[in-house]
Write a structure and sequence with these properties.
Number of strands of chain A: 12
Keywords (chain B): ATP-binding, Membrane, Nucleotide-binding, Transmembrane, Transmembrane helix
CATH architecture of one domain in chain B: Up-down Bundle
Strand content of chain B: 5-15%
Oligomer: heterodimer
Distance between the termini of chain A: 46 Å
CATH topology of the largest domain in chain A: ABC transporter transmembrane region fold
Number of domains of chain A: 2
Distance between the termini of chain B: 59 Å
Radius of gyration of chain B: 37 Å
Largest sheet of chain A: 6 strands, mixed
Largest sheet of chain B: 6 strands, mixed
Shape of chain B: elongated
Strand content of chain A: 5-15%
CATH superfamily of the largest domain in chain A: ABC transporter type 1, transmembrane domain
CATH superfamily of one domain in chain B: ABC transporter type 1, transmembrane domain
Helix content of chain A: 55-70%
Strand order of the largest sheet of chain A: 6-9-10-3-11-12
Largest interface: A-B, 136 and 132 residues
Number of helices of chain A: 20
Structural class of chain A: alpha/beta
CATH class of one domain in chain B: Mainly Alpha
Membrane topology (chain B): Multi-pass membrane protein
Radius of gyration of chain A: 36 Å
Structural class of chain B: alpha/beta
GO molecular function, one term (chain B): ATP binding
Helix content of chain B: 55-70%
InterPro entries (chain B): AAA+_ATPase (IPR003593), ABC1_TM_dom (IPR011527), ABC1_TM_sf (IPR036640), ABC_transporter-like_ATP-bd (IPR003439), ABC_transporter-like_CS (IPR017871), P-loop_NTPase (IPR027417), Type_1_exporter (IPR039421)
CATH topology of one domain in chain B: ABC transporter transmembrane region fold
Number of strands of chain B: 10
Shape of chain A: elongated
Function (chain B): May be involved in multidrug export. Transmembrane domains (TMD) form a pore in the cell membrane and the ATP-binding domain (NBD) is responsible for energy generation.
Chain lengths: 590, 594
């Protein structure tokens, strides 16, 4: 079993981070505001110990308390802290705001991208992983922005400001304190190196374990019948144990290098401060306030480092998530683009295929030199086995895929050059498996059509014969439809999809007949309504049941990407070829 | 707190780790008390000019000693407590897995895989957190908080301690208040996020419709609206969430102010020294975390309790299949069905009625009939996925199969399920499922019998080809034939093909059946099928309809009877010939799987 955990190199991480940060650019205002809040709150943060130092050294030690001075000190203390509280709040809030704005942009970009990607992409990438790019991965980036980036920024500001204050208090000691810097950086680097390894291994094992568990639940029947429960348990326990071992390693690593280590260094730094001032006090006078302030700054210096080190793993995971989102954004399997903006129009709906040769993968031709014509208002049926190429003809016709050889014309214009809107308005598609959206009956017929009135919706439903079942629904046209139309029978779903297709009154109709059995109660209705839909419209129909297209004006029989027979039902039965055999076969069914 | 009582068995088991871990925590708390004391004393000696280099060195050595010890103690409590809580996670996972593997199909029928998974992931996580972070937070609050508080009172001033503590309860009250608002807002935000998730899922699933109608832009607008909503609701969360830090800062500042204000008076009054005041303020900073931890603790325990209840509910569910064993013999002999009526648990509808027949050992039984006629129910009873009610029996050699050891009973069967479930591992491992140590030759032999060997060798990775989501996708026919090979592996006493030849073409079906016939002399076979050709050579054929046997006999007797079997057989034969003829025209005689 392999794991999906990606490990990015440092260079990749920087590249991803850079690209992510670019998304903040449109929000310069928020960014600037957040930064100024951050600066004010850090400056205010370092002011408190300084004020206390002044109080201790200038007033408490000599024990003189001029009322006015003390008042001013108290006012300063209150002002500083109120400012600190207010700016801290806004700084945290603004960073979150920024994070959500960025994610919003990223999500919209990703969703837009999905609209632009061609079917080639969706054929290859499982829908679950596309969804997860847009939702879970972007959510992981939010976490990074809010908790990690905020922490990092604050940490940087706090570390710098604390150091500045230490320099102001005592340059020499500040320099001495700098000794700890390389040590901390070294510890963090070592930590990053091992933790990334353990962490991703532990995550990988966890996902293996969950996969194994999920699969065992699904296949429990087989496991039990074959008496393999004990073995599967052992296999599960092996991964479980390994996962535990890696977790233990992570715990030990954290214990060796994170808070315990940083805190030890902090205490050592206190030793340095006390010794320094202690020995200094033998030569010159040292004030209590300075020692106090220095120790406070030291603490402020170490605390953010602790926080940052604890967030390193979240940060790395978020970068992996971001890199997955960017991979989606960079995918170039685009949907075919219309070539010109010529104002060609679809007037009659004459469809023509001219020597079309097509391959999905560039190796095997699924359509070989296909030519045929569908005169306006007539029906052409495509017949053949799975893989004969009949679905490919429809896929090309609908511009789901780009073709290179030959051409497809509507009213004499190549479909590559027809305006997109013109195509969408005049071509109606009925899919094999009618897709029903969450919403209402009306919203499912109307979809996003901007000018369609309720009367038109009703008209379409009436036209295809869906009105009788819709009217029986408790809420009629406003009836809520659950996901995938689970409450409706397959026939009702089909009728709903018919109404959706017919509502814009298309000139050309493309039908992909359902293979699945439709409940017999609606079967007749469906056939009748298909008959009605086809009349007067140029129709290209894939037929699985030959009985439904016997009246087609022309029937094309496809085999291995070629048209092997063509003619009307009568003609084809006469020549006793493939069509005839298929027809006899279907007639033999009970 | 009940969760700790319920987890008592575990704490008993890990007594040593927890005692050592808690002891280490106490030591850490004690060690942490030292630096502020040293700081205060050094400051006092400097201000009173009584510091000597000897004492300074002594203090320095003491602090270094404390630093190293704290490091060691901190390391060990982590390993002890977090190690133990991880072992709890491991143990619970193991127990749950074992439990699942003991449950009957009706258990899985009633529950969704996602929920069963959630128990093993989220719930175990929450319980693990309770046993790790939960113990830590409460110990830290009580031990560190208590130790610091007592030390402040004892070594500096009880009065000042009291004054400085006044604002701190407000911190606890405010933060837990934010917490409760937050959890409500968070649920709302979560709901918005899941609508966005649903929307995305639907858009991806319905991409063809959207593209055909050209509504990509409108769909994007809809998505943008939902995404806006997610942002809006999350910002509401952020507004409250951002209150935590400033509130803590503010309360600490007040506390700080009070300590210095009143502390300074005490210094002037010579009640405490300046160094003690510094010590005091340093301790004050150490009180923040234990107080916050207290709030966390209750949150963790609440979640842990709910999760552990769910896990226990599963652990206490009994399998509906009894495991009482009354005979130790290995079942063998004739199979007799004496079932007057049978309904699946929880269903009113009678699934089988008056099923009475005997299949002699070593013979082949064919069961035919329409979908839903009860063919599979017969198999499910024989496999003991469900048990018959009193008065009915399925017996082998005259003994009700309920009385055999279920392991021994299952040891008889080679079963090919309808859904051809394969595991996402190599083809070899799938075939050798019953015996992972089987040699490649044995695996190939089984694959040969089920006519899949050639298909397998055509894959670039051969028998090491991984199937499933991460590997190649197999056709239905290929899956069926691999499932058959899996069932044939150990040359089972009873081979059960439950509608397992539906996706292979006629010739392959004939070939597999004749292989089975030749290689399984003296062994029992049970075949259910839609195609009469699959059971044509069976020693006994029963025809099912609506849970009853409507015809039974052999191919020749049933043909003579001219009933449903005969009519169907005739129609299917005609169809088979026509299909063959058509295929020959299309392919020049190739086969089409699926």
């Amino acid at each position: 079993m392999t794991t999906d955990v990606i490990n990015l190199t440092l260079k990749d991480q920087l590249r991803v981070l850079g690209r992510l940060l670019k998304y903040t650019l449109p929000f310069k205002g928020v960014l600037a505001l957040a930064f100024s809040m951050l600066i004010i709150s850090t400056v205010m943060g370092v002011m408190t110990p300084y004020l206390v130092m002044i109080f201790i050294d200038n007033y408490l030690t000599p024990s003189v308390f001029p009322e006015e001075d003390i008042m001013w000190l108290i006012i300063a203390f209150i002002t500083v802290n109120v400012l600190a509280v207010v700016t801290t709040y806004w700084q945290i809030y603004l960073l979150q705001l920024l994070a959500f704005k960025v994610i919003q942009e990223l999500r919209i970009d990703a969703f837009k991208k999905i609209g632009h990607l061609g079917m080639t992409y969706f054929d290859k990438v499982p829908s679950g992983s596309v969804v997860s790019r847009l939702t879970n991965d972007t959510q992981a980036i939010v976490d990074m922005f809010t908790s990690v980036l905020g922490t990092f920024l604050m940490a940087i500001f706090m570390v710098i400001s604390s150091f500045v204050m230490m320099f102001i208090l005592d340059v020499k000691l500040a320099f001495i304190a700098l000794i700890f810097m390389p040590l901390i950086v070294f510890i963090l680097l070592v930590y990053r190196k091992y933790s990334a390894r353990y962490f991703s291994r532990a995550r990988g094992l966890l996902s293996d374990m969950n996969a194994k568990l999920a699969e065992s639940i699904e296949g429990m029947k087989i496991i039990q019948v074959f008496n393999q429960e004990k073995r599967l348990q052992r296999e599960f326990e092996t991964i479980n144990e390994e996962h535990y071992q890696y977790n233990l390693r992570t715990i030990k690593l954290d214990g060796l290098l994170l808070r315990p280590a940083i805190d030890m260094i902090y205490i050592l730094s206190i030793v340095v401060i006390l010794s320094y001032f202690g020995f200094l006090s033998f030569e010159t006078s040292v004030t209590a306030g300075v020692i106090f302030a220095f120790i406070q700054y030291m603490e402020r210096f170490f605390e953010p480092i602790n926080q940052v080190s604890q967030n390193l793993n979240i940060f790395q995971q978020a970068l992996v998530a971001a890199s997955r989102v960017f991979t989606l954004l960079d995918d170039n399997r685009h949907a075919p683009v219309q070539q010109t903006k010529d104002q060609h129009e679809i007037t009659e709906g004459r469809v023509e295929f001219k020597n079309v040769t097509f391959s999905y993968d560039g190796e095997v031709d699924v359509l070989k030199n296909i030519s045929f014509e569908v005169p306006p208002g007539t029906t052409t049926a495509l017949v053949g086995h799975t893989g004969s190429g009949k679905s490919s003809i429809i896929n090309l016709m609908l511009r789901f895929y780009e073709y290179e050889h030959g051409d497809i014309l509507i009213d004499g214009h190549s479909i590559k050059k027809l305006p997109k809107e013109e195509m969408k308005e005049n071509i109606g598609l009925v899919l094999q498996d009618p897709f029903i959206f969450y919403g209402t009956v009306t919203s499912n017929i109307k979809l996003y059509h901007s000018t369609m009135t309720f009367e038109m919706v009703q008209e379409a439903a009436r036209f295809v014969g869906a009105d009788s079942f819709i009217n029986k629904l408790p809420h009629g046209y406003e009836q809520k439809v659950v996901e995938k139309g689970g409450d409706f029978s397959s026939g009702e779903r089909q009728l709903l999809a018919f109404a959706r297709t017919m509502a814009p009154n298309p000139k050309i109709l493309i039908l992909d007949e359902a293979t699945a059995n439709i409940d017999s109660s609606t079967e007749e209705k469906i056939q009748a309504s298909l008959q009605k839909m086809r009349s007067g419209r140029t129709t290209l129909a894939i037929a699985h049941r030959l009985s439904t297209i016997q009246d087609a004006d022309e029937i094309l029989v496809l085999n291995k990407g070629e048209i092997v027979e063509r003619g009307t039902h009568g003609e084809l039965v006469q020549i006793k070829g493939i069509y005839y055999k298929m027809y006899r076969l279907q007639n033999s069914e009970q | 707190m009940r969760v700790f009582k319920n987890l008592g068995w575990f704490f008993k088991l890990e007594k040593k780790s927890y005692i050592i871990g808690l002891f280490m925590l106490v030591l850490v708390a004690l060690m942490e008390l030292v630096p502020p004391q040293v700081i205060g004393r050094v400051i006092d000696r400097i201000t009173t000019e009584t510091l000597t280099s000897n004492t300074l060195v002594l203090f320095g050595v003491l602090l270094i000693f404390v630093a190293v010890l704290t490091y060691i103690f901190r390391f060990f409590w982590r390993v002890m407590i977090f190690g133990a809580s991880n072992r709890l996670g491991r143990t619970l996972r193991e127990q749950l897995f074992e439990k699942y593997s003991k449950m009957s199909p009706s258990f899985f029928g009633k529950r969704r895989t996602g929920d069963l998974m959630a128990h093993a992931t989220n719930d175990i996580n929450a319980v693990q957190m309770t046993a790790g972070a939960g113990i830590l937070t409460i110990a830290d609050s009580v031990i560190t908080g208590g130790a610091v508080l007592i030390t402040m009172a004892l070594t500096v001033s009880p009065k000042l301690t009291l004054i400085a503590m006044i604002p701190l309860p407000f911190m606890v009250i405010l933060t837990s208040w934010y917490g409760s608002i937050l959890s409500r807002l968070f649920r709302v935000a979560q709901a918005a996020f899941s609508s966005l998730n649903d929307k995305t899922q639907e858009s991806v699933a319905g991409i063809k419709v959207t593209k055909t109608f050209g509504y990509e832009d409108e769909d994007l607008k809809d998505f943008t609206n939902l995404s806006d909503d997610v942002v809006k609701k999350n910002l509401k969360v952020a507004k409250i969430d951002a209150l935590f830090d400033p509130t803590i800062t503010a309360i600490i500042a007040i506390s700080y102010f009070l300590s210095i204000f009143f502390g300074a008076r005490m210094v002037v009054a010579d009640e405490i020294s300046l160094g003690q005041l510094v010590t005091f303020t340093t301790y004050l900073g150490m009180m923040v975390w234990p107080l916050l931890a207290l709030g966390w603790f209750f949150n963790l325990v609440e979640r842990g309790k709910a999760s552990y209840d769910r896990i226990e509910e599963i652990m206490n569910t009994r399998s509906e299949i009894s495991t009482k064993i009354s005979t130790n013999s290995i079942p063998s002999g004739d199979i007799t069905f004496n079932v007057s009526d049978f309904s699946f648990p929880g269903e009113d509808e009678v699934s089988l009625r008056n099923i009475h027949f005997t299949l002699k050992e070593g013979k082949t039984l064919g069961i035919v009939g329409r979908t839903g006629s009860g063919k599979s129910s017969i198999i499910r009873l024989l496999l003991r996925e469900f048990d018959t009610d009193p008065g009915n029996s399925v017996s082998i050699n005259g003994i009700d199969i309920k009385q055999y050891d279920i392991k021994k009973l299952r040891g008889l069967f080679g079963y090919v399920p309808q859904d051809n479930f394969l595991f996402s591992t190599t083809i070899r491992n799938n075939i050798a499922f019953i015996n992972p140590d089987a040699s490649l030759e044995q695996v190939q032999e089984a694959a040969d019998l089920s006519y899949i060997h050639q298909d397998i060798t055509a894959f670039p990775e051969g028998y090491d080809t991984v199937v499933g989501e991460r590997g190649v996708s197999l056709s239905g026919g290929q899956k069926q034939r691999i499932s058959i090979a899996r069932a044939l592996m150990n040359n089972p006493e009873i081979l059960i093909l439950d509608d397992s030849l539906s996706a292979v073409d006629a010739e392959t079906e004939t070939a597999i059946l004749s292989n089975i016939e030749q290689n399984r002399a003296g062994k029992t076979n049970i075949i259910t099928a839609h195609r009469m050709s699959a059971v044509r050579n069976a020693d006994l054929i029963i025809v099912m309809e609506n849970g009853r046997i409507i015809e039974q006999g052999t191919h020749s007797s049933l043909t003579k009877a001219r009933g449903w079997y005969y009519e169907t057989f005739k129609a299917q034969s005609l169809r088979r010939d026509l299909t063959k003829e058509l295929d020959e025209t299309l392919e020049g005689g190739g086969n089409h799987d699926d």
